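Practice problem 4.
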């Protein structure tokens, strides 16, 4: 798929979910590189820089996207011929895609161990890693039941209930505002993440913090499933995660909005759940308390603060 086509699909959320977005970006860069007719390394680099910028401009919140782009682009090392540069990028892209898929599988295995026989689990939005944990527990023969929220305004809950139904898991479908009414029937909340900051806060689909708040009030554990490439290195420098605000028409049709001149529709796509509301983050490297987010950024994303306060990338993404 050409880069602009992938970028468009990410923007429209035809390709969605932080992990899938990252893999699609890596694939687009790889395909773009293979299709490039650049004859010098410099021209190739410029072309790929533009492709990277196009992908990065699609959605601002899921940090898996810049992390994936960064890792793939690092394949273009200095002093290479154009063919070597191309091969370097393609290798990195393939590596990222493979290690991402591997990470999703490992998290399912680790996360399912925290789900007990007889548990009722609540999940919000549609996360392939969170669902991976739930489905793995079911496959291990544990008798489980799930509450899945609707997830206004884009209704990702519909994808979730279809997946759970197809896996043969008993599921209750509820509106987002019913979470607190059912939280006492729930043993564990399992959600995904679009970004994890250095202080262990989790940025995920709007409503996640309300779910976590209700869970904490009811003394229900909250488990987040997140690959290490969803941790945000630049938050070490105090950079904040930008919360995407999408078109109001996703919430209220324009024809109705037009008739209400004093009304502004607000449509943030994500919110921030503080570390105190989270019991565990399950990564492909194992489960950590949210307070250990810095260690993941340092050890597995290879980021360190340099002499002049800038982050240095000292290694590559290493999700094996
Ligand atoms: P996985 C999604 O965002 C949801 O917030 C979900 O929890 C998160 O990405 C992680 O998804 P959106 O793209 O990578 O639906 O776990 O806005 O699939």
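Answer key:
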């Amino acid at each position: 798929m050409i880069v602009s086509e992938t970028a468009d699909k990410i923007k429209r959320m035809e390709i969605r979910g932080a992990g899938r977005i990252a893999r699609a970006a890596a694939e687009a860069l790889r395909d773009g590189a293979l299709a490039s007719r650049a004859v010098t390394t410099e021209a190739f680099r410029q072309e790929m820089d533009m492709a990277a910028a196009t992908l990065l401009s699609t959605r601002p919140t899921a940090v898996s996207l810049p992390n994936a782009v960064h890792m793939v682009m690092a394949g273009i090392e200095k002093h290479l011929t154009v063919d070597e540069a191309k091969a370097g990028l393609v290798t990195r892209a393939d590596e990222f895609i493979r290690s991402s898929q591997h990470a999703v599988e490992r998290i399912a295995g680790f996360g399912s161990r925290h789900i007990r026989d007889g548990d009722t689990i609540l999940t919000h939005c549609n996360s392939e890693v969170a669902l991976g944990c739930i489905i793995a527990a079911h496959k291990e023969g544990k008798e489980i039941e799930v509450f899945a929220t609707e997830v206004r305004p884009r209704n990702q809950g519909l994808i979730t209930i279809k997946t759970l139904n197809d896996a043969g898991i008993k599921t209750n479908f509820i509106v987002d505002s019913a979470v607190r009414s059912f939280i006492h029937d729930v043993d564990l909340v399992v959600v995904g993440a679009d970004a994890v900051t250095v202080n262990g806060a989790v940025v995920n689909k709007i409503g996640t913090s309300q779910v976590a708040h209700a869970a904490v009030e009811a003394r229900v554990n909250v488990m987040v499933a997140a690959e290490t490439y969803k941790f945000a290195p630049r938050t070490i420098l105090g950079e904040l995660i930008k919360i995407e605000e999408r078109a109001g028409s996703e919430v209220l049709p324009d024809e109705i909005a037009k008739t209400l001149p004093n009304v502004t529709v607000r449509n943030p796509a994500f919110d921030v759940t503080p570390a105190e509301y989270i019991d565990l983050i399950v990564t492909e490297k194992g489960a950590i308390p949210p307070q250990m987010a810095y260690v993941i950024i340092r050890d597995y994303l290879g980021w360190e603060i340099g002499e002049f306060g800038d982050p240095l990338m000292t290694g590559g993404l290493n999700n094996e």
